[in-house]
From TrEMBL:
InterPro entries: DUF2846
DUF2846 domain boundaries: 42-122
Protein name, per record: DUF2846 domain-containing protein
Organism placement in taxonomy: Bacteria, Pseudomonadati, Pseudomonadota, Betaproteobacteria, Burkholderiales
Keywords: Signal
Length: 153
């Protein structure tokens, strides 16, 4: 009888721990992606996104544009940036001693570009985010991948 009670409490403790961990995930609370905004005349648009994953779900990554912090990228989120045309550097930095990923972009007026922050998950996951990068995506694929994401801004 004691064995059954122990198993019951052990299962309850496991469920509560899992629930606490999942609720602690850093997720975006902004509106869900609803489509690509029309660009403003004289500006360019950039969408930067991060797919939802259990790996690093507790971490929100710092995002900078031209060395200025512009926001953060939570698990399963996107940022919509409206910026001046020209050459820009976009960076994503997980916390701690993790690798900073960056990409140089040439933004044109009334143009919309899509970038995804990618990093190894599963058995290849590592604390330093070695192998992470910011990858340009085509419009159709990016829109499909962003359908379930929420705004981080």
């Amino acid at each position: 009888m004691a064995s059954i009670k122990f198993k019951h409490y052990a299962n309850l403790a496991t469920a509560l721990t899992a629930s606490a961990l999942l609720s602690a995930c850093v997720t975006a609370t902004g509106p869900q992606f609803s489509g690509v905004a029309s660009p403003e005349p004289g500006k360019g648009d950039v969408y930067l996104y991060r797919s939802a994953a259990m790996a690093a779900s507790l971490d929100s990554f710092a995002v900078t544009l031209d060395e200025k912090k512009i926001g953060s990228l939570a698990n399963g989120s996107f940022l919509h940036l409206r910026i001046e045309p020209g050459q820009h550097k976009l960076t994503v930095k997980p916390s701690g001693l993790s690798k900073t990923s960056e990409v140089e972009m040439e933004i044109k007026s009334a143009e919309t570009m899509f970038y995804k922050y990618e990093f190894p998950t599963g058995p290849l996951m590592n604390l330093f985010f070695a192998g992470s990068s910011i990858v340009q995506k085509d419009r159709t694929l990016a829109i499909e991948e962003m359908k379930e994401l929420r705004s981080s801004k």
